[in-house]
Amino acid sequence: MPRGKIELENYVESLSILDAEGNVDSSLEPKLEPQELRKILRAMLLARRYDERMLKLQRQGRIGTYGPALGQEAASLGPAYVLSKNDWLVPSFREPAAMLYRGWPMERLILWWGGNEIGARTPDGVRDTPICVPVASQCLYGAGIAWGCKLRHDGTVAVCFVGDGGTSEGDFHEAMNVAGAFNLPLVCIIQNNQWAISLPRKKQSAATTLAQKAISYGFNGMQVDGNDILAMITAAGEAVDRARRGGGPTIIEAVTYRLGVHTTADDPKKYRTEEEVEQWKCRDPLSRFYKYLKKRGVLDDKARDVMEEEIGAEITAAVENAEKYEPDILEPFHHCFETMPNYLEAQLGEFRAYLDAASGGEGGASGQDNPALYRQVH
Ligand SMILES: Cc1ncc(C[n+]2csc(CCOP(=O)(O)OP(=O)(O)O)c2C)c(N)n1
Ligand SMILES: [Mg+2]
Fold first, then answer.
1. Does residue 234 surpass a pLDDT of 90?
2. Helix (H) or strand (E) holding 351
């Protein structure tokens, strides 16, 4: 067999529409009505203020832990914005902007981070999977759901999220491979926030872009300015339309930055410089979008203040609701299966007996009827 060359269609498209000063490339500007633009700003602002409040709640000992999504609002909201209600969204753990936009009550997200299983229950009428922490495992749910969409022929699609670190996991590879092989209606958003805890993007992979991984799976990959909401909406919109028409999956690498800590248990000063963080702050997705809206005359400072006030009140109400919730130590047993399998029922019985014994046989079966015991056992 002679030595030759196998020609591959081998490039990655890139996209950026808004610059850091909020100037727009008018040839690429999506046609969005002022009302829609205000809705988008509000959704990003809500996620930002929620994020800030969550960090405070954790520092005050009112929730257990938190993984901030500060600076990643555009990368997460853009894909959610272009989905219809019947589509499916499969988040990782830095997508509060997407989840709140899709209709998750904020108190449920607060409860999740407070360690309550109820926070993992998808609200009625919302087609999302819950927050997912085992890195990249959600890509498999995304591929499976997309396969279901295809088998149902109902024109729905799935969007899943994964981090730059997650792209090194086997689960990511398996999911993308199956998505390509079965031509599934799946859009995978890689939130490349430059860090996987303390491991920088350069050490994560030798590939020039993470988007180019799509080429090896046989479908489209695109690298997008993930801090540019207009670019994210455009790229995700095109990928979702293509998937809906039977054109198969897409990987979108959203280039963004984790401005905050990895989680509340992390100190990023140990592995990255303040200068790096400052440079990325100049590309903050919210401020550049706001500058664009001001230039277009869609919103002024006064209207934004009103928005801020409403959002503040909304968050305070959500925190109050979440804190009214009575934790139930038996909750984990109730949220895995519609009908509890025998082995789990046996374990529940055993656990009840343990609780009874620990409370001196007074029948303290749950945190709801014995809060002191709940604290002791938890
Ligand atoms: C399978 C698995 N391994 C390790 C961890 C611990 N862990 C949590 S987040 C994380 C880094 C993930 O980095 P990346 O995918 O870039 O997402 P980011 O945290 O930056 O959003 C690790 C190693 C985990 N949750 N799951
Ligand atoms: Mg990362």
1. yes
2. helix 342-358
Q: Is the pTM of this model over 0.90?
A: yes
Query: Among 135, 171, 258, which residue has the most ligand 1 atoms within 8 Å of its CB, making it the best to mutate?
Result: 135
Residues 307 and 358 reside in one and the same domain: no
* CA 197 to ligand 1 centroid distance, Å: 7
Asked if 226 and 129 count as a contact pair (C-beta separation under 8 A), the reply is no
Is the beta carbon of 171 within 6 A of some atom in ligand 1? no
Predicted confidence (pLDDT) at residue 372 exceeds the cutoff of 80: no
Domain count, the chain: 2
Q: Which domain holds residue 357?
A: 331-377
Q: Is the distance from the beta carbon of residue 91 to the nearest atom of ligand 1 less than 6 Å?
A: no
C-alpha–C-alpha distance, residues 28 and 95, integer Å: 26
Q: Which of 245, 271, 335, 354 is catalytic?
A: 271
* 312 and 166, same domain (yes or no): yes
Looking at the fold, whether 186 and 80 belong to one and the same domain comes out as yes
What is the arithmetic mean of pLDDT over 28-50? 98
Give catalytic status of residue 262 as yes or no: yes
The confidence score (pLDDT) of residue 348 equals 95
CB neighbour class for 183 (10 Å; exposed up to 12, middle 13-18, buried from 19): middle
